[in-house]
Amino acid sequence: MIFNLLKRGSLPKLSYPITRDYPGRYFHLIVYTVAIFAVILLGAVAFATQGYEPKSVLSSTFNQTEFHWYNHFVSPQKSGELCDPHVFSIGEMFQTTQAIFPWIIDWTQLTPSNVDGAAVQGGVSYADSPLGIDSCDVSRMKVTVDLTSWTATISASVRCDDAFPVSASTSWTASTIPDRATWNSERYCAPIDPSDPESSNFLYASTILQPAGLDLLMALRHNMDPVETGNVITIAAKIDDVEGKLDCSPKPLHPILSTLGFSNFTFTNNTVAVDTFNALFYNATSNYMQAMLAAVRLDFGNMCPNFLSDLSHIEQTFIETPTLTPETYLRYFRSTESLS
Question: Dihedrals φ, ψ of 157, to 5°?
């Protein structure tokens, strides 16, 4: 019966056209084209913002880890070869381009030639002047050996004249306990790339400083009585101050055993020369200080002969001990070179 009614048209139609074709001839083509490009654009934006896996990058160079997706198309701005002008204050840290040690400014040297507004305020201005070529060198060093923590810490002070009239200091700790050694500290946790000159310089310096410090610990541990000598020993050595001229003549260290600390927290001050105190102790101390002297000069770009840049100076620098010989240092150094 329903079919008969439909045939006669007595029931209203449930669907009927309510639209008409748009008069534009290319309207449909334009709509589909724009829609396709919009989908592609939105997909690219979504991938650029979310479609990647984060990757951690460690570097001692500021802003080197900053990278964006658009850097594939537009290269990021690179820093110049020279440092930006800066006013350094007392207590501020800086690094040279060799990036071996972090340095802390201890004091600024005021002379009529460099007294300016920055210096009067306790700082010194610096603007792209090379360091170390003829004005920076080590002025004093100190070694503190602590048998209770099994560490040998060496600190060095550098004096600069002319372009950067300051005195700065740094330190290095050698230890058989990884968490106490500078080599394993957070400051040096960035992966070392032997092809990178900055990483290579630190790697070469560490290869010499670590065994030299451990050799000093062994000399104390096996050849001296801790009950008689104490648990904490401080050795100081003053080197001729820099006078603004390059002086590559051999610098005698003359280390002085200045402090003995005992387990009952008492200390005694002495002025006993280390070579008269114990010959083996003197040799190990001299080697540790010579290693630090070479590393600091390399860090500041000092032009004096350096075994870190010329292996022929190793035999002239180090004194043989029962555990280490100049040939041993040379073997350590060459094993490091093989990594590059």
Answer: -115, 135
Beta strands 136-146 and 256-261 are: unpaired
317 within 8 A of 309, measured Cβ to Cβ: no
- Crossing angle (nearest 10°) for helices 326-337 and 197-223: 150
Residue 273 amino acid letter: A
| Cα angle value 94/248/85 (rounded, 5°) | 25
Nearest alpha carbon to residue 124 among 167, 159, 89: 89
Query: Which residues, at least 6 apart from 224, have a Cβ–Cβ distance to it below 8 Å?
Result: 278, 281
What 3-state class would DSSP assign to 205?
A: helix
Q: What is the pLDDT of residues 253-273, one digit of tens each?
A: 556 655 554 444 444 455 545
Rg of the Cα trace of the chain? Answer: 34
What would the two tokens of residue 217 be? 């610990």
Enter the pTM of the model.
0.63
Structure tokens at 22: 């748009």
- The 8-class DSSP code of residue 190 comes to S
Q: How far does the chain reach from its first CA to its final CA, in angstroms?
A: 96
CB contact at 8 A, 143 and 115: no
Q: Quickly list DSSP for 123-153.
A: EEEE-S---SSSSEEEEEEEEEEETTTTEEE
Note the pLDDT tens digit of each residue in 217-253. 887 776 655 445 556 677 776 665 444 445 565 555 5
Residue 170, beta-bridge partner list:
156
Answer yes or no: are the C-beta atoms of 244 and 162 closer than 8 Å.
yes
